[in-house]
């Protein structure tokens, strides 16, 4: 592989509370998954982050999650399938409204946290996210964790879908991420993360914490914007990828609103 996108979860501030260094990370990544007011974010943060992304030619996507600020969207909320549809549609629509105000454009949807993990394993949840996304705009693409039900659901409906892997998360032999409450869930060392990614991109096989490496597809690499050292991780990963001859470029071409 000679080309890969680098994305980050951004716009996760709320009121006076800051989360990460979005402005600096937007100088490094090529796509930005922007919180839509559920797990994090507010109208001012959405508009500001979209404007910053647009100025830098960074492609923007919606990052809907459970309305659970206290748990940062990382606790499973047992919604009905209809409620999942409503959550994704309204949050994505809210970000698109903010984008209109910021002179930007939302191009794709990537579920956040526990919602993404739920959709990874449960096809009805994945289907609900796809229906909601298509209802808001058939032009939106899906960014899905590689090898998951969400990825399969998007492909089965003919949607444009891109697959992602994670720079800073450990993998199980099932293809799922190591739960955050278990050892080796997080990779904090940028050198370790970059080495693993370059090995994956040359072989197509992702190392796991409990077995042999597994095959995964990838159009994008995620660096979590809320992690300690997120900026250093993103900078180091991008530099090492480029040194290895891998072009870092968005999986969707920037539009005039992103330039």
UniProtKB/TrEMBL annotation:
Similarity comment: family membership: Belongs to the LamB/PxpA family.
InterPro entries per UniProt: Glyco_hydro/deAcase_b/a-brl, LamB/YcsF/PxpA-like
Name this polypeptide is given: 5-oxoprolinase subunit A
Gene name of this polypeptide: pxpA
One Pfam family, short name: LamB_YcsF
GO molecular function: 5-oxoprolinase (ATP-hydrolyzing) activity; ATP binding
Protein source organism: Rhizobium leguminosarum
Catalysed reaction equations from the record: 5-oxo-L-proline + ATP + 2 H2O = L-glutamate + ADP + phosphate + H(+)
Assembly and interaction partners: Forms a complex composed of PxpA, PxpB and PxpC.
